[in-house]
Write a structure and sequence with these properties.
Number of strands of chain B: 8
Organism (chain B): Oceanospirillum sediminis
Largest sheet of chain B: 4 strands, antiparallel
InterPro entries (chain B): AA_ABC_transptr_permease_3TM, ArtM/GltK/GlnP/TcyL/YhdX-like, MetI-like, MetI-like_sf
Domain ABC transmembrane type-1 (chain B): 94-387
Shape of chain A: globular
Strand order of the largest sheet of chain B: 1-2-3-8
Order of helices and strands of chain B: HHHHEEEEHHEEEEHHHHH
Structural class of chain A: alpha/beta
Bound molecules: glutathione
Oligomer: heterodimer
Distance between the termini of chain B: 47 Å
CATH superfamily of the domain at 88-138 and 268-394 in chain B: MetI-like
Pfam families (chain B): BPD_transp_1
Number of helices of chain B: 11
CATH architecture of the largest domain in chain A: 3-Layer(aba) Sandwich
GO molecular function, one term (chain B): transmembrane transporter activity
Distance between the termini of chain A: 33 Å
Helix content of chain A: 25-40%
CATH topology of the largest domain in chain A: D-Maltodextrin-Binding Protein, domain 2
Shape of chain B: globular
Strand content of chain B: 5-15%
CATH class of the domain at 88-138 and 268-394 in chain B: Mainly Alpha
Radius of gyration of chain A: 22 Å
CATH class of the largest domain in chain A: Alpha Beta
Strand content of chain A: 15-25%
Structural class of chain B: alpha+beta
Largest interface: A-B, 43 and 40 residues
Chain lengths: 339, 399
Amino acid sequence: MKKLGLIAATAVMSVSVTGTAMASATLDAVKERGYVQCGVTTGVPGYSNPDDKGNWKGMDVDVCRGVAAATLGDADKVKYIPLNAKERFTALQSGEIDMLSRVTTWTLTRDSSLGLNFAGVTYYDGQGFMINKNLGVKSALELDGASLCIQSGTTTELNAADYFRANKMQFEPVVFDTADQTVKGFEAGRCDVLTSDQSQLYALRIKLAKPDSAMVLPEIISKEPLGPVVRQGDDGWFNIVKWSLFAMINAEEMGLTSGNIDSKMKNSSPALDRFVGKEGIKGSGLGLSDDWAYQIVKQVGSYGEAFDRNLGMGSPLKIERGLNALWNKGGLQYAPPIR
Amino acid sequence: MQNANKSPSSRVPEQKTRFWHDPAKRALAFQILLVLVVVGFVGMIVQNTLNNLESRGITTGFDFLSQQAGFGITQTLIEYTESSSYGTTFVVGLLNTILVSVLGIIVATALGFLMGVARLSNNWLVAKVASAFVEVFRNIPLLLQIFFWYFAVLQALPSPRKSIELLDTFYLNVRGFYMPQPVPQEGFGLVWLALVIALIVSYLVIRWNAKRQDETGQRFPAYWTASGLIVGLPLLAFLVSGAPLEWDHPVLKGFNFRGGMTILPELAALWVALSIYTAAFIAEIVRSGIEAVSKGQTEAASALGLSQGKVLRLVVIPQAVRVIIPPLTSQYLNLIKNSSLATAIGYPDLVSVFAGTTLNQTGQAIEVIFMTMLVYLTLSLLVSAFMNWFNSRMALVER
Ligand SMILES: N[C@@H](CCC(=O)N[C@@H](CS)C(=O)NCC(=O)O)C(=O)O
């Protein structure tokens, strides 16, 4: 009798365990199609930019690759769709892309009224100003009356207006549709200042004909948490994108890299066993194969690796980890545990 | 109906025709049915869209129009600050669209007529230059022309500190063309009054002259008189009231010129590109209009001893205009719609400001695009209506 009860209980349990995987229409569509459609920028070095062979590279690109590795077992199965700032949300809402990974700031309006969900923060940024060195300006507070090159459809447009108004200064907004046009306007002297998220200023600076002629001012005038975005209403897919990013961050915290994960797996530890899908809930909660997190780290790498090769010291941008260091190294990057 | 020739008494209980046997009523019924189906269908689509938007968590409605916009716009014809509403951004964008369209239509018409007439010139060089103009500008995509004027020509101008100056009052640099702005002082009202009087008197003189010419055949230089009045009278008033006008001069302060009036390079590039592109088409329309007037007309007029200029002005143009106006109207409509390419170079027109930034900041794509389409539709209908009215006036002078 007892035994029977136990069997029944296990049966119910196992049903409910498999039952936790949310059915995800997007996941089904991705599997059937064989690749993830990921919205990226039209070209910002370090975030998403095609290299000279036409392969997309960058921090935002690596998030797309992570999702492809987790869902399809192959990080290369991504189709990149370049979008300017104005096009990005419509592309996501209308289903043209499965996810948006394009230096997009998480704000209340976007999260609550566009039918979108932000799946986390890949980079904690803030808005800054880039200026021609020979103007001799040292602080943003000296910018009264300046012309600002801004990209249309961004939080940048709003922050700039707020900042100048709060400091009782005037400015002339010169608004362009793409990063390239904005850079061109800045180079031609149409504006004195190029303003955007500070990390992207470093990125756009290396696009200038003479990068040394421009400098980034010290002021940061806003909070710009940038992260991947999905459509509302597909919680299963939302979880997948969210946990793909968390897996990368957790991997860094656990000291895993694409190079060492195989050797580390030889000495099992409870946390590592759960991470690589040997123990615990494995892939069933997300509706993925058990080694989803292993595939992300093996094929794409940890958050730290991705940061270093795209934005950090291993890249031309040489951006410090700063706020984007792990929480136990003085930064803000913190991911919930995989268990 | 067959009963019509029977006795009057039988008319009342007449054998009833079923309404579907009566062609007029049947047609009416079908029309009502069709309208109901169309209305129902549209209603269904609207309802369906609203439901879908709601189930996807996308905000709908027009409430956003009264929310604070919070972004800056370079060129505003009405008072606008960052704390104005999204509704105001709509008006600002609309006025900027109208501004560049009106400026474009004026220059395109003038240049187009000039080139069209020049193509028919007996002077070989003039005719060839005009046809080269038409062929070049008609065949290069408009967007490329806009980029050419903006990036290749205007962005090659010097920085504000190295501006090209003219007479110490006009400045040209990569940020625009700066000029003094007239600021009317107390007493300037008299000048406006004088202008209104001059306009009324001129109108009366021109009408009197036309009537007199009809009756007696005598002519009076009415147009010269009118021009004289319109310039002279306000000028006189201006001097009498002690020249109550001051000029606000642009001065270089910090990064930019301040004060005065500015033509932004975005406006200039768009204006030039739209005018030249459309002028190339108008030139062809004008040429074909003039060629449509039969040679006999010109010869007869010359035989009467009219000078070349008068032949053109009194005989050819009035007849050509009737052929020209309908296709000219579509060129005007094209120009208005093409002005939405503004967004490519950041001129703050309706599409760039409202269907661009406002749409993006609020996320209310359907409402914003609906309003924008409605604007272009309304502008086009207004222009068509005006041109039709003008055309019917031209057509009626036939005697
Ligand atoms: N984080 C801001 C700004 C993002 C943004 O669009 N930045 C520009 C930098 S100039 C960019 O990446 N443009 C690239 C493109 O349009 O392809 C937002 O979400 O609104």
